[in-house]
């Protein structure tokens, strides 16, 4: 409640006057007389001379003071703020990505966003209800379904938790539009950045929070074991405006620092550091790289974790009727952990004790031999017979073709350049619905990849490892690097803990927000659960775990037995840069102000009416006493 004429409260000084009048009375002396009969008439006359005789009853002055108080309040013109009503529905989407944990003026950007939404909830309401959503939530983004209950809405906003996931707004906006069906419906997006917002028909009002922040963080982190040494590579970025001197510390499980290095990073640039440590007695332990002395606004990227696991053998079966010297060399050089077995078509009898099967050339395998395999990873090189994946409709191309496009959005193809290579002969085949091309010519998809029924396939529609047909394998480093990335994609599918899409880097080390597939063999009635970095526990009812929303180490248990661990890091250059939008479009700001203008409704009429009833009650009491 507010008062439009607060100067009226100066009249409160009249209330003590009313109280003082109650105590005013004449002071008389006492005399002893033989009779009062002759005094009655005189006493009646004198009683009329005593001012405010009725005020001797204390209840009456209290009523009179209360009446005066209510009259003063009415003169002050009391008013209440009523939220403006927007016809339609409102959805508040609050960004709770990693950058929203940046601290400014003693509070995080997420705290600022919550305060802004709580303020807006006091000023607006919607005829169709209000929904609260977040950009990152395991329960399909919804924090509170549509309601007009202010208490539920405020509680939902206050319960929004911080995540360490890089912002990806497309999913939540696609989900939100399912609930909007009127031109009057509005989405209010509260965030520190509005890059790459989807183009949707519903109005999106942007509410910016945060200011420019300083940060120094880890943007790359990887571990590789070579013989008896672990090599740790990290890249550190300085987003501040000044050169920085910081310390890096490498610690193992338990907090023991095993190595440290000072690092000098110029403003706006990055610096790489390399640690080499002896692998003896470190298998299965956790390592953590810490940045010391950064004094920045963002703590999430000041540490990175990894699990130092033993290198698991990668068993590859190559089925070929020729001497594939170039392909064999590439497979051997993939790593010392490769166990390569080469057989001919006649020697293949449904062997399944392998991680990856490569069919080299146009070889004929009986269908019953293929469908009975337990292997989940297959590579087909220049093979016409793809009945295993129901893609046997093909047409030979005997004329040369040139690679004209490549799928740069796929992680395998990022930062590679295959365009321009000429291939003398290839196969034209219709791409299955579940397939995704890696590169193509203007006539056909030359290399494609896909996942069908949990099995992974890579298909070369030409002989990639015959120098007389194509120079793919000789195009250093792009050709072999792409093939090795494909092998890594297959190898990740053999791990008990793996990304369901694509994993880059050390096994059991992932980025925040990625869904993880967990396939430990346990008894059917055994309960699996996972302990997150904050020590909270989540029951694993499915093999897919999606709540990788915190940086740190996750531990998997079967009952009370530890099965394995994996590490999750941010490692996102865009998120760590703490980009923010200083202003939003001016027309949008005016629209927000117009729509969110609360109504000031005066209620002095009700207080004045109550004063009238109080006056009548005082008059009644006066004449009854």
What's the number of extended β-strand segments? 39
Poorly predicted ranges = 50-56, 585-590
Query: How many helical elements?
Result: 12
Helix residue percentage: 10-25%
Strand content: 25-35%
Identify the strand order in the major beta sheet: 20-19-21-22-30-29-28-25
Largest beta-sheet characterization: 8 strands, mixed
Derived from helix and strand composition plus strand pairing, the structural class reads: alpha+beta
Provide structural commentary.
The protein is an alpha+beta fold and 625 residues long. Helix content is 21%, strand content 32%. The chain is built from twelve helices and 39 strands. The strands form eleven sheets. It has an eight-stranded mixed beta sheet with strand order 20-19-21-22-30-29-28-25, with helices on one face. Strands 9-8-4-10-11 form a five-stranded mixed beta sheet. It has a five-stranded mixed beta sheet with strand order 32-38-37-34-35, with no helix packed on it. Strand 34 (528-531) and strand 35 (537-539) form a beta hairpin. The radius of gyration is 39 Å and the shape is elongated.
Short description:
The protein has 625 residues and is of the alpha+beta class.
How would you describe this structure in keywords?
625 residues, alpha+beta, 8-stranded mixed β-sheet, 5-stranded mixed β-sheet, 32% strand
